[in-house]
Every structure is written in structure tokens, then in C-alpha cells.
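ingest -> validate -> predict -> emit
validate: passed (alphabet ok, no gaps, 147 aa)
predict: started
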Amino acid sequence: MPDINHKTYIKVPLEEVYKTVSTSKGWNAWFTDDTSLEIYPDGTGEIRLRWINFGSENVNIEDGGKILEATPNKRFVFQWSPGEQNSIVTFKLQPYKDGTLVVLNEKGYTNSEKDLKACIGCAVGWGEALTLLKIYLEYGIVYKQDL
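emit:
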């Protein structure tokens, strides 16, 4: 199964982007509803992503796992399991023009039917999520789906 890859340019400093993708408050501001995470002193930790009454079907979703790397202003990497097994999501942050280039990669899906469905959903979802992150950080706009 191929990796999921997305990039977006956000016109805010690296520090602001990192703070938003590496804290519960940050995730809940732009994307999730009740995410919790803890980063340990060694740069690892735990993350629980939560969405309440999400989408047109009003489903509650909870997923998460280990934070594998939290390198301030550079990388935030975690495991979760939207499919059959764990996949790894990496946010890589790079200085670019007057802001930050956010490079998102997700890998680890198999060719099973459940993983294929999850991979397609996440490929679309991460593109939408990065758009939400951009409009939140650049304009302070919070858009949470309410169908």
C-alpha cells in the first residue's frame, strides 16, 4: 500500500505550528473534540484522538497510540490504528518563505479490505485536516463539521 503524503504552506512561524500539532489544546482547536496527549521528557508519549458526533452520521470516534517522536519545531510522530493495524503519522515542519512548510506522511497500511478503506479515508481526511490547520493558524477560523 502506498504512503499518504500531503504538504501545505502555512504563513506562521514553526513554533506556532508545532504547538498546535503537539498539544491537546491545539488539536481540539482545529480538528478534534476531546483529544488528550502527553509528551514525556524523552520526546515520546501517548495520544488519544477523539471526535464527538462527527460527520453526517454523527459518529463518535476514538483512536490513538504512542507518540514516537516529539522534536520541538521539527517533527511530531505518532501511531494510531484507523485500519487493521497501526500506522504512523509524521508531521515534519520546515522553514519556508515567511512561515512553515508542513509535510505530512502516513504509512503502514496493508492490502486488506479494512486497511484499504481506512487508507482512502485518511488520504482524503489528512488533506482536509491540513486545510483546517492552515485556516485556523492563518485566520483564526475554526470550522468543525456540523451536518
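The mean pLDDT is 95.
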